[in-house]
């Protein structure tokens, strides 16, 4: 528009400076969001680790007979649901961070492969491993075995 003399060079410069300052602020805000997302991913990893320990503890308590089968099944189901939720949340956070990074880099298109994986419904979270198997070993010797 400046070249066609529809706006003055001064007005163009003012608009350009305003745009640059807004863009700079948006980039700062995006970086803050990216840092917050990274912290949330760390929290999700900690939750996943804690839930893994809870599953292990539950298995041990069940194997030594401290909790009933009914209680075990109920608690195990609850722990598995929470593990799936934490994994889904982590994947969502990582996807959001990737999208934000792509926007900051000027690449708004996602790789087709990632879109297919992330577009899956929440109830199709990655399958979690089977619970650990606990083996008890008796000491051989004085017991006459």
Task: Describe the protein in words.
- This protein is mainly alpha-helical and 145 residues long.
- The longest helix has 55 residues, at 9-63.
- Mean pLDDT is 79; it is low at 110-126 and 133-145.
- It is 68% helix and 0% strand.
- The protein has helices at residues 9-63, 69-105, 112-118.
- It has a domain at 35-124.
Helical content class: 55-70%
pLDDT averaged residue by residue: 79
What structural category arises from helix and sheet content? mainly alpha
What is the radius of gyration computed over CA atoms, rounded to a whole number of angstroms? 27 Å
Strand residue content? under 5%
Distance between the termini: 96 Å
N to C succession of SSEs: HHH
Largest pleated sheet: none
Count up the helices: 3
* Total E-strand runs: 0
So what's the overall shape?
A: rod-shaped
SSE inventory with pairings:
Elements: H1 9-63, H2 69-105, H3 112-118
Helix pairs in contact: 1-2
Quick description:
With 145 residues, the protein is an all-alpha fold. The protein contains three helices and no strands.
List its traits.
145 residues, mainly alpha, disordered C terminus, rod-shaped
